[in-house]
Each structure stands twice: as C-alpha cells, then as structure tokens.
Amino acid sequence: MKSENNIQTPRQGKATTGIIFLLLGVFMLAKTTGLAADIPDWIISWPMLLIIIGVLSGINHKFRRPGAYFMIAIGGVFLAERIIPGVQSHDLIFPVILLALGLHLIFGKKLCNKAAVHN
C-alpha cells in the first residue's frame, strides 16, 4: 500500500522552489551590498544554482530520470573550478562524461527496471 503523505503536490514544489530562489536572492543582495562579506563566492554562483535545480528535479522525480544527475554533475564540474585552486573545468568535463556514461550503462537499465516493477 502506498502512502499518500510522501507525494509532493505541484503547489508544494513551486513553494519550495520559490523559497530557494528567495534565499538565493537574499544572499546575493547581502553579498553585493557588503552586508555578508563572509559568504564565499561559489555559494552564490550559476553552478550552485544548476546543482540546486538538479537536486529539486531529482526529488520531484524520485531520482529515476538521469537529467537530474547530469545537471548535478555539470554544476559540480564548474563549481570545482571555483572551490579547488588550480582546477580547470575543461579538464574535468570529458572524464565526468565518461564516468556518467559508464555508470548509466552499468546501473541505468537496472534502476529503471526496478522502478517500473515497484510502481
């Protein structure tokens, strides 16, 4: 028997996304005005936004679709450049693509089949 308590309605998803964007806007405004000089630049960046969108998409689809993983991976590659000194994102893109493709080939069909059986 499925529990209806764990299902998120579209309105709840919009509210959650709205709250995240609101907080991101507050952090960006505080950083720009100098009120929060202690916030690292990488927290308020487009790679972090891509990771947040990927996580939200994954939560909404219960991480069954690979799109969320790709957004998180791409955001992570470009975020690594901002966090780790000396790392160039263009040096990481091809290895991350190979890793993602390999993981999808190994686990992708199995995970999709398990999800289809449990529904």
Automatic annotation (TrEMBL):
Tell me if Membrane is a UniProt keyword of this record. Answer: yes
Which residue windows are transmembrane per the record? Answer: 42-60, 67-84, 90-107
Residues forming the LiaF transmembrane domain are 17-110
Instruction: Say yes or no: keyword Membrane present.
Output: yes
Identify the keywords attached in UniProt to this record, alphabetized. Answer: Membrane, Transmembrane, Transmembrane helix
> What superkingdom heads the lineage?
Bacteria
This one is known as LiaF transmembrane domain-containing protein
Species whose genome carries this gene: Arcticibacter tournemirensis
